[in-house]
């Protein structure tokens, strides 16, 4: 038994190292190497897997492992692309070196989410070796996640997911201190503040400076953010407002007549996109009432609603029981601040957990790393969960 444990630990660690060594950061330009690595690993382990392409680009590795009898379908999903590498000089080890030091594996994407990919690949291989009693395990390892577009998963959904219609999904995000059963949604808009153009040196006509007006808008948004409602017993995290971009002006000699302000609002079940729209409209109305200038406009870029699964949902109960059995203690459920592809799946009426995985440090930052000792327990928890759901 001890020998089998050592072999599993080594096998999982080696797979994560191989994945981390391949640069697949968002914007790298070519995801072919990372997609090929995962596809070939699955084929070597007798897992029937295919590559999904869109516009000539690889978008995901996907497949299904079918049980002996008909039954429900459950989905495992983890992303192959990563956050940008950042300044390599700020890292303890090169971000693509996959260096192991004191039981921690360093590298970009080790936590988010190449450890999850390695764990889920191993589960697919195990289920091929010992088929479940019934149902189907589907898996998707996608790219275009860190752009926020979730292109790989969206393409898979349109091509295959609608037909499979999973009864639930588990996403391979890291963190072993909680089971994430919900996420805030988001609502994004560009507010265009207008002014009256003039020569910046004119002594006759001062104009109305759109950047000055935008600064007043940002101050009013900050005040509005301070009055957002708190979280609740059902959804512990409250909404959040962040100004993420300001752009205006065309040169030193012109009073700017246009300035754009991008606003990101994180929404909850009690503060929805409807409330976010109303907040932005109120702030803009107050701004326009204070200046004689063309009206401020709001362009909404869309978003997702918040979601939360109940602790009694079959998916949550199975994962919680497996974690308690493996770890010897209960793992609490929680909601997450960032939205994820689980919000998209929730809109498709597919309940999804948005994270339980390996212990990690510094996700999306220098020295991102994972605790190798948590790889095998994470594998066993998910394997037990899947077997229970497909029993």
Summarize, please.
This protein has 391 residues and is α+β, with helices and mostly antiparallel strands.
Keywords:
single chain; 391 residues; alpha+beta; Aminopeptidase; Alpha-Beta Plaits; 2 domains; 9 helices; elongated
Poorly predicted sequence stretches spanning 5 or more consecutive residues: none
Largest sheet: 6 strands, mixed
What would CATH call the class of the largest domain?
A: Alpha Beta
How much of the sequence is in beta strands?
25-35%
> Percent of residues in helical segments?
25-40%
Tally of helical runs: 9
Strand order in the sheet with the most strands: 1-2-6-3-7-17
CATH architectural label of the largest domain: 3-Layer(aba) Sandwich
The tally of domains stands at 2
Backbone shape: elongated
Radius of gyration over all CA atoms, rounded: 24 Å
The CATH superfamily title of the largest domain = Zn peptidases
Query: How many strand elements?
Result: 19
3D structure, described in words:
It is built from nine helices and 19 strands. By secondary structure, the chain is α+β, with helices and mostly antiparallel strands. It has two domains: 265 residues, 3-Layer(aba) Sandwich (Aminopeptidase), CATH 3.40.630.10; 120 residues, Alpha-Beta Plaits, CATH 3.30.70. The strands form five sheets. A six-stranded mixed sheet has the order 1-2-6-3-7-17, sandwiched between helices. A hairpin with a 7-residue loop joins strand 18 and strand 19. Helix 7 packs across helix 9. The longest helix is centred in the N-terminal third of the chain and has 20 residues.
């Amino acid at each position: 038994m001890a020998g089998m444990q050592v072999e599993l630990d080594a096998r999982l660690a080696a797979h994560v190292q191989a994945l981390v060594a391949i640069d697949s950061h968002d914007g790298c330009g070519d995801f072919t190497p990372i997609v090929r690595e995962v596809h070939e690993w699955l084929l070597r382990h007798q897992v029937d897997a295919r590559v999904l392409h869109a516009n000539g680009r690889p978008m995901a590795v996907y497949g299904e492992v079918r049980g002996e009898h008909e039954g429900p379908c459950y989905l495992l999903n983890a992303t192959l692309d990563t956050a940008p590498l950042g300044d390599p000089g700020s890292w303890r080890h090169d971000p693509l070196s996959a260096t192991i030091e004191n039981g921690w594996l360093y590298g970009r994407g080790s936590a988010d989410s190449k450890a999850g990919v390695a764990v889920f690949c191993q589960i697919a291989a195990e289920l091929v070796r010992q088929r479940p009693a019934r149902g189907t395990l589907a898996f998707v390892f996608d790219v275009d996640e860190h752009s926020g577009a979730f292109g790989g998963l969206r393409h898979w959904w349109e091509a295959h997911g609608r037909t499979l219609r999973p009864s639930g999904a588990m996403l391979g995000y890291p963190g072993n201190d909680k089971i994430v059963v919900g996420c805030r949604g988001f609502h994004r808009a560009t507010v265009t503040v207008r002014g009256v153009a003039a020569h910046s040196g004119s002594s006759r006509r001062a104009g109305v400076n759109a950047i000055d007006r935008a600064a007043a808008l940002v101050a009013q948004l900050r005040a509005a953010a301070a009055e957002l409602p708190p979280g609740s017993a059902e959804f512990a995290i409250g909404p959040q407002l962040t100004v993420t971009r300001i752009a205006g002006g065309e040169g030193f000699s012109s009073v700017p007549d246009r300035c754009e302000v991008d606003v990101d609002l994180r929404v909850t079940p009690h503060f929805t996109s409807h409330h976010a729209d109303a907040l932005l409209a109120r702030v803009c109305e107050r701004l326009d009432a204070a200046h004689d200038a063309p009206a401020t406009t709001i362009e909404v870029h869309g978003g997702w609603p918040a979601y939360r699964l109940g602790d009694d949902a079959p998916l949550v109960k199975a994962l919680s029981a497996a974690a308690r059995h493996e770890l010897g203690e209960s793992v609490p459920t929680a909601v997450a601040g960032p939205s994820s592809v689980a919000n998209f799946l929730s809109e498709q009426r597919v309940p999804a957990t948005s994270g339980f995985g390996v212990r990690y440090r510094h996700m999306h930052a220098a020295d991102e790393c994972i605790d190798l000792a948590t790889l095998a327990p994470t594998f066993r928890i998910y394997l037990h969960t899947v077997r229970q759901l497909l029993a």
